[in-house]
Amino acid sequence: MELVRSSGILLHPTSFPGPHGIGELGEAAFRFIDYLVAARQSLWQVLPLGPTGYGDSPYASFSSFAGNPYLIDLQQLVQAGDLSPEDIAHPPAFSPDRIDYGWMIAWKVPLLVKAARNFLRHAAGDRRADFEAFCAEHAYWLDDYALFMAVKEHYDRKAREANIFGAMWSNYWDKDIALRQPAAMARWQKEKAEEIAIRKVWQYYFFRQWTAVRQYANERGIKIIGDIPIFVAPDSVDVWANRELFHLDENGQPTVVAGVPPDYFSETGQLWGNPLYNWEALQARGFDWWIERIRATLRHVDIIRIDHFRGFEAYWEVPAGAKTAVEGRWVKAPGEALFETVQRALGDLPILAEDLGVITPEVEALRDRFGFPGMKILQFAFDSKEAGGLNATNKFLPHNHTFRSVVYTGTHDNDTTRGWYRERTPEEKDLIRRYLARPDHDIVWDFIRLVMSSVAVYAIIPFQDVLVLDSDARMNRPAILGGNWAWRYRAEALNAWSYSRLAEMVDLYGRDPALWQKKG
Fold it and tell me: Is residue 329 part of a domain?
């Protein structure tokens, strides 16, 4: 992986402004890229872009391959003739600052259904041929995904009518379709033919729009950093269509699940509940599922951040049905064999490793064996609970950074820097002021300056920090269900005050990739 000193912004497309209740892959996306150009940024990091469900988390997607239809730009569907101008002329009075997923879905999904039906009835010529070519090219995941979502919609509706919550394919669907028996698969494909086709049209819409956004960014010197969560959601087509690749019983229920062990922050650890991979089965098949997952992601982004990278060296296995993660154990994973195989299949791997938490020498060796840059979080450097403050082993302090790293003020799981600083102890604030040798009246931009000046090859700043926003702009509060993934910025946030400050820092701290490429 070629590493060239650069900087960029962390922002999920759901946060774009616009009238339809959620960010879309339309005009606002292109204007944000223009802002990055004005700020002389060369990286844009997004969170996972897959379809979301209960909890709205992009890290709990129904598919590792599909795109989120809620991001589809409706204006482009009007321009294509699949919707009329009147269809979107009077949207509800959505909040410009927060996504109300229930309200947005209730309004937008019927419009997406209408557009897809119009497309299926009237699209012809080059457009119809392009759609059919898209379906053929992506059939290896698209056919299963579209069927899964059509069947899921049927059973979800049935569960709601019965006031049943937590219904998933493995605990609520009829056994014949849950276990993909051929007769049931054929019957559902026939009965849900229109719904399946609609889901395919949505994926066509999404990826054609996203491809245009990515091309616009790449043409202006901006690389997009995507995201792969190591684990997949239990209620996903990934598990339903590949039961043999996970530790499941004969009914499709997990026998063991993922989590993390007890630590300073939690006496009982964290019980995530994701099904765990059957690595022996994956390895016997040449890791083909992982190869295709990484290949598919690299078709849509330039660099991949892999979440919970340490799980490729060893993962915390908890028996299914356990109430906490205390009962778990460490199990070795074949990370080296996996990445060697993927590298032979795909070549150089532009991967960033999310190596936060308790990282062992074995995890560091795996990361370094393939040259994957790790992550440094500036907030952790001064948080006594995270890294212990000013000491020789605090790898998050800027003077301990290394070149092969990506430094952040914070991530999507952290509070905004403004909100985080407000909650620091007097001792922590004193350390920060002494380290900076300055008062704290501009603390957020002082942190931005620290990450930009770091020797780390990449510096990434959440857009909330660029805008100096407080905790109400936080993207996610881990382990708290509800109210997450909802923040949006307003169009006027893309102003010269912030982009000129960022552009100046690119000059001051040598984060223009062209400068280093010219030097060879």
Answer: yes
